[in-house]
Amino acid sequence: MRDKAPLSSERPVLIVSDHTGLTAENAARALLAHFPAQSPRYLQRPFIGTVGAAREVVGEIAALVASGPRPVVFTTVTDPAVLSELQTAPALLFDLLGSGLAALEQEFGEQAARSVGRHHDMHDQTSYLARMDALDFALATDDGLGSRQYGLADVILLGVSRAGKTPTSLFLALQHGVRASNYPLAEDDFEQEAFPLPLVGHQAKAYGLTIDPRRLHMIRTQRKAGSRYASLEQCEYEVSRAERLFRRLGLPVRDTTSASVEEIAAGILSQIRRV
Amino acid sequence: MRDKAPLSSERPVLIVSDHTGLTAENAARALLAHFPAQSPRYLQRPFIGTVGAAREVVGEIAALVASGPRPVVFTTVTDPAVLSELQTAPALLFDLLGSGLAALEQEFGEQAARSVGRHHDMHDQTSYLARMDALDFALATDDGLGSRQYGLADVILLGVSRAGKTPTSLFLALQHGVRASNYPLAEDDFEQEAFPLPLVGHQAKAYGLTIDPRRLHMIRTQRKAGSRYASLEQCEYEVSRAERLFRRLGLPVRDTTSASVEEIAAGILSQIRRV
Fold it and tell me: Of A16, A211, A253, B52, which has the fewest CB atoms closer than 10 Å, so is most exposed?
């Protein structure tokens, strides 16, 4: 967790923001993913909202230059004075928002408000509250709220225990403000030919999550080593029955072995938004 | 959740990515936050990885142009053929990664791998597993794992019930891979002059969370309307005792009324990373 002194082969990559720095960090990581041979060392410097704070960062950069490759700075700072100060650093600086703001000013025919803190890394206040509500919903239904929850949900995730329902529903809530309910598949469901009873009427919101049985076995073993629940045989049985059920019901299915929660969430969102 | 037909005053803002689109959406929202008079309507188009998929998006944009202001496109696509296709759209296009890649190629003296899917919106695979582990940890300790958890945590959040500990710890896990434990403050703790016993030895990782008592009263009322737990008096009492305890212990304190979980997480991270 702590910053170690960078190795001389590591490239210092500073994330400088007047807010949390998530936007700048995402952009930096997206760019650097195209250079797998590089060893970036990320240094987060959030809440840099004044010329004084920027000057401290410039001082840090000057110290880094002495001991390794030229630092790279990614910044979303838009206050002209703070940005000017950062531009004095002996580094390759990416002003991520500057040229975009100028282009939008021209397109919209109005001046951008370049004040500190304007930049909301995520969404606005209304959608922030929606995200916190969706998180409460996901946590409450994860404990089991009864079947009433399925009427209130935007999305219902079906899957066997530890197939990835909870991380996906928490991510849908925290990042996107989408209310996701989980429906854990059990023995009873596998026997049915039809949609699980509590979900009837909500088919359109249902998504199946599946997972490689060997990975499931690994995950369950961390929880309950040696149990029947964690055995490879049981995992193979449950996954194959779950996948058969998904096919029978015609559900869209996502595999959490090969996709991240971000990817699964984005896929689900693009589907519910296009219908 | 669904795309409605945009009002004629709304500006269509398309988020086009060969992956989840989170990076492009964050950048778009950060830029548009500087133009509060505009009414953007976000249309997410993730997983656009082929020329054919891009052509469909171009077709959509052409249809939008007929009925309102010129669409704005934010894209993180880097595959030259896919990007070229997008550039034919009748829209203002922001190629968010293109110029950055060229500058980094020059700085590093190597070619960027501009292949589809290179672009990881979040982190790499190792840190993805760390994030999922941290999420498991946060969920497990939220249920109460006993005092052993505090030794394993990167961060310990202290606060009264519903002060924001759980959303903050889940965000620290999902976004940053940081293991956060919660310590709910109760009557017993308020009486003490010293650090709560289970936390002794872990002071350096401890952060206090506080909240406006009126907001706490509102949140608790949604849970248990009319209870003593939810009463304004009880909320005022608990918050004032908690804040007194934080002062006595010299803990860094964050207010969840005025700051988002992103902001609180970024503040905590910059503190633990700089020590």
Answer: B52
